[in-house]
């Protein structure tokens, strides 16, 4: 009797109908698990926050914090440090010859041959045309404001829009991505050059003189090779 019961149990286990029922139950259980997983809604605060712009233009996590300008926009005479004489020179050039100051700023940003003359002469022409037709220097800022944007990007400096948003916090809601933020910063750079043109040029000049050497300065180290000493053979 025991042998017959074991044979019947083996037949039931090997029956294809029973195996099909077991497979259906497994499939149903897997489907229930998937349906439950799909029904789980991820809350908005648990989503991964995306960051787009960093100092070097790459996307790696949280953006690098912006640096501050070495001097303020209205710090006309500069700071009382080792660059005080250079700050006075910048103030004098900005007041008397802004075309020369803008040319030297462009020369420090891009040390290609002819950078100073190309920017200085172009600025000078726009300066005379603006003063002749409109009575004030209104055309040169359209040409020179891009240098402020280039300095801000090169040294990862805080822009006017970001500074205003940090102080009052009323402008951050209108920013969708970092590209839109950069457009707003460029607009603020243009407005700064139009309304406070001389002060903007002087601030950029002070910043560049503290961080970039003049292209004409030979900063390469000189290697001095000393001749070998006179050698004598010792006699035994």
Automatic annotation (TrEMBL):
Biased composition range(s): Basic and acidic residues: 1-14
- Write down a Pfam family by its short name: PLAC8
Where does this protein come from, organism-wise? Camelina sativa
Disordered as annotated region, ranges = 1-25
Would you tell me the protein name for this molecule?
A: Cell number regulator 8-like
Q: Which gene encodes it?
A: LOC104792495
């Amino acid at each position: 009797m025991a042998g017959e019961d074991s044979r019947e149990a083996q037949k039931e286990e090997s029956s294809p109908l029973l195996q099909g029922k077991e497979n259906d139950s497994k499939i149903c259980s897997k489907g229930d698990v998937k349906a439950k997983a799909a029904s789980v809604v991820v809350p908005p605060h648990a989503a991964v926050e995306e960051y787009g712009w960093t100092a070097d233009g790459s996307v790696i996590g949280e953006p690098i914090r912006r640096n501050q300008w070495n001097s303020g926009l209205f710090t006309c005479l500069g700071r009382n440090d080792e660059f005080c004489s250079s700050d006075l020179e910048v103030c004098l050039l900005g007041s008397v010859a802004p075309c020369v100051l803008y040319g030297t700023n462009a020369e420090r940003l891009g040390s290609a041959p002819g950078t100073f003359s190309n920017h200085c002469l172009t600025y000078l022409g726009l300066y005379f045309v603006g003063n002749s037709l409109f009575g004030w220097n209104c055309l040169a800022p359209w040409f020179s404001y891009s240098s402020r944007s280039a300095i801000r990007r090169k040294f990862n400096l805080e822009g006017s829009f970001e500074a205003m948003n940090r102080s009052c916090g009323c402008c951050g809601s209108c920013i969708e991505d970092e590209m839109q933020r950069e457009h707003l910063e460029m607009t603020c750079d243009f407005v700064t050059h139009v309304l406070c043109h001389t002060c903007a040029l002087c601030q950029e000049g002070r910043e560049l003189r503290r961080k970039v050497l003049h292209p004409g300065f030979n900063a390469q180290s000189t290697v001095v090779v000393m001749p070998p000493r006179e050698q004598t053979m010792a006699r035994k």
